[in-house]
Amino acid sequence: MWWRRGSAVTDVLVIGAGPAGLAAALAARQAGAGVVLLDASDQTGGQYWRHPPGDPGADEELRGSLTADPGCEIVTSAQVWAVGRREGAPPSVHVLVGPADGDGRSARVLNPRALVLATGAHERTLPFPGWDLPGVVTAGAAQAMAKGERVAVGRRVLIAGAGPFLLPVASSLLRLGVQVAGVVEAGGWARLARGWSQRPRELLSVRGKAAELAGYAWELARHSVPYRTGSAVVAAHGTDRVTAVTVARLDQDWKPQPGTERWVAVDAVCVSHGFVPRTELGLASGCAAGPDGALVVDEAQRTTVPGVYAAGEVTGIGGADLALAEGAVAGRCAAGAAATSAQLLQRAVHRRFAARLEAAHGIRPGWTAWVTDDTTVCRCEEVTAGELRGVLADTGTRGLRSLKLTSRAGLGACQGRMCGRSVEDLMRQAVPGGPLDPGRTEARPIAVPVRLGEISTEGIP
Amino acid sequence: MMGAPLTVTVDGEPVPGVAGQTIAGLLLARGRLAWRETGRTGRPRGLFCGIGVCFDCLVVVNGLRDVRACQRRAVDGDVVETGISGD
Lengths: 461, 87
Hints:
The complex is a heterodimer. By secondary structure, chain A is an alpha/beta fold. Helix content of chain A is 32%, strand content 20%. Chain A is built from 14 helices and 20 strands. Chain A has helices spanning 19-30, 60-67, 139-149, 166-175, 189-197, 200-204, 207-222, 280-285, 320-334, 341-361, 385-395, 400-407, 420-430, 452-455, and strands at residues 12-15, 35-38, 72-75, 78-86, 89-97, 106-110, 114-117, 121-123, 136-138, 156-161, 179-185, 227-228, 231-237, 244-249, 262-265, 268-272, 275-277, 308-310, 376-378, 383-384. In chain A, the strands form 6 sheets. A 5-stranded parallel β-sheet of chain A has the order 3-2-1-7-18. The longest helix of chain A has 21 residues, at 341-361. Chain B has one helix at 23-29; strands at residues 5-10, 13-18, 34-37, 44-46, 58-61, 64-68, 79-81. By secondary structure, chain B is mainly beta. At the A-B interface, strand 9 and helix 3 of A face helix 1, strand 4 and strand 6 of B.
């Protein structure tokens, strides 16, 4: 079922039905507003609560109360592809409803009184030689296939990158009977210990999460899976698929230490170095972003555009608990009510946890040292680091837009989602002063590729 | 719980799957990692991001080009073509 019609008037439109969006929809309903909740997937729950179709899923409780509510219309398989700005009001929202990438989807335009952006994040994978070989996938891809379809990406798999997300991915693969050759974390022990041990009393208030992480650590130990810190996959090897990777030790800035390389035979490797907020709809609406690229919000989760709120990873990477807390505040405020003090306290607790994550696992600049000149950076247009470095050296440009047009990096189908931040980092290191237009690679007026036939009757807003 | 058995045709060959699988999941479950060639250098690609953002896993479904295999659920009788170059 793609959509279900409920209220006639859209008081509050929520885009994204992961933890933040579901919490926002519920809070807005409880405050008396009519709600429409959209998601591009054919099920609710987002990436975090992904589950096989037909299974109830971990979002059952939240979703259940919304699906039973005639004041909430849930529309799945709903791809928002553009927004049209309106003076002093939230933008109009242009949606195509139907199977992914279909050519006969039905168009719909919504003009909400308040808009909540809960669009989440996608993974950031740093390029390394061979990362474009089949069998090299993001940790999120391995997790999506494991949790959503019970399919394993390989038989002997290494998991690498940075952050606690690597642990549940290892757990999911172990449960499918996969041999996990190791979990490789770029953050060194000293930094992890500093990030995780400061202000230990704060951890008491997020003990559910601490217990979850301890559970994963126990599972790794039980299966004798090595957990290696201060190390990274610096190359993948193979001709038409990955057959091995090189793991090297890193210094504290993530620069590989020569002579520490080890060869590990695998048939798949899952890599994740962090997450990028999916801000394109916010940026197209005119919302301001901060230096970290996330949408700027105030105490009520309001963005800088009247009537537009944001919650969850799109306001900064912080995990599902923070997304739930922010969603509850955003939904209530978008409905015209004030957030409760309990909601604000929840949010504050989980924000401090998010700061801890960044301190322990945030990307360090030394990673570019493992990027050889023949390493592909832009996967779509197959632009190498050498080509990018050449253009930067020849032109001395500090404009990301100009670099894109000259090199073609970021011009492909993914619209710079995979390479944008890496291109920005390479420019930052190659050109004194760095980019004049930081964040430029994340502006996408057309939010996703659409077929001309589907929008020709409606036109571009 | 996954759904009922189904069959899709991949490059002319019948391939079994179950309802609820995406086309990427169906190919991956058969041990297949790559099903597209890049436009510039003809390199093999398949699943990468798994959540619909990288556009590496494109296939042709029932004659329609540029369908993300990781986002499209397999439907019994679908005709899937692989190996199509990106541009």
